[in-house]
Backbone:
């Protein structure tokens, strides 16, 4: 999957870093909670537009996606963590 998109594992990890519920991610990405839930539970893969909206919501909140494994960056208040793309 291209880096500009998002996997279900990355979504769950990013929500965990931000302490976001699925409802909060849905609101921040202008998507329905069912879209987030179905994606993270492996029931469906959202359209590229919806995946991009989720990723952009995380990035706006300070999450950084890298090729390495999921880790937290050294961060100051308001900065997000680092999520791997494996």
Residues:
């Amino acid at each position: 999957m291209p880096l500009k998109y998002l996997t279900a594992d990355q979504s769950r990890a990013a929500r965990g870093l931000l302490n976001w519920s699925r409802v909060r991610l849905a609101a921040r990405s202008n998507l329905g909670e069912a879209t987030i839930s179905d994606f993270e539970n492996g029931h469906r893969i959202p359209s590229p537009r919806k995946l991009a909206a989720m990723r952009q919501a995380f990035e706006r909140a300070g999450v950084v996606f890298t090729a390495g494994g999921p880790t937290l960056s050294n961060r100051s208040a308001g900065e997000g963590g680092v999520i791997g793309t494996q």
